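hey m, so remember when u said the tokens were messed up on ur end? i reran from scratch. heres the input so u can diff it against urs
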Amino acid sequence: MTHSRVLNILIICLVFLHSGARAQSDAITESKPFKIIAFDAFPIFDPRPIVASIESAFPGQGITIWNAWRTRLFEYQWLRALGGQYENFMHAANASLEFVAMDIQLNLDPDIRNEILNEFMNLKPWPDAAESISQLRSQGVKLVFLSNMTEQMLLRGLEDSILQDHFDAILSTDSASTYKPAADAYSIVLDRYDVSREEVLFVAFAGWDVAGAKWFGYPTFWVNRAGATLEQLGEIPDGQSQGLAGLVQFVREHQSGF
């Protein structure tokens, strides 16, 4: 069975497990101004240094290893969420990297493995993040992270960055011992703030996260930096662009309607 088929099966399972959230979102008809913008990590943080680290260790194989690792990482997270056997992001990242190394018979020295994994703990913002985040703050909304990454990972990414003071909360699905696209993961924002679903704009990096947020009932914007194909899961984002400038414009136009 191909990785893409496994991914689709896992997501379909999550839909059935959390069908109640979909029923609630179907009832939402009224548009409201956004009070909160909840970001996945990677619209803000640039993952390219991870690929560069892999390429440095294994010349000519960086993209291939990264794609296989990323796919297996999501599969392990979702399987653990479904099976009630939660481990946090970094544990899942380590296990999935070890699997890929064994699967393609890659000689993964422990020091090299740790060096690659540590890139997740040292992520830096995309070049367009600082200006766009500042403009979003001027729209009078709260900015939070809602990520499968741990709180420590997200905080490390914000260190020595002017973005530190712009985010109101670091919300990790680790606090709920689950992963997006589970409904319990998306609901962390509602548990923290007294807002309705339609008042939270979720900003996704991956197509599956677009679908998950829409299933839960959030308006959703896709920062599709990689120009990826939209997942065929019955949902489309409310807005889309390759960078954060498009998000700023989307929010400005939405808020001006009220």
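this time it looks ok to me. The longest strand covers residues 142-147. if urs says something different then somethings off w ur setup not the seq
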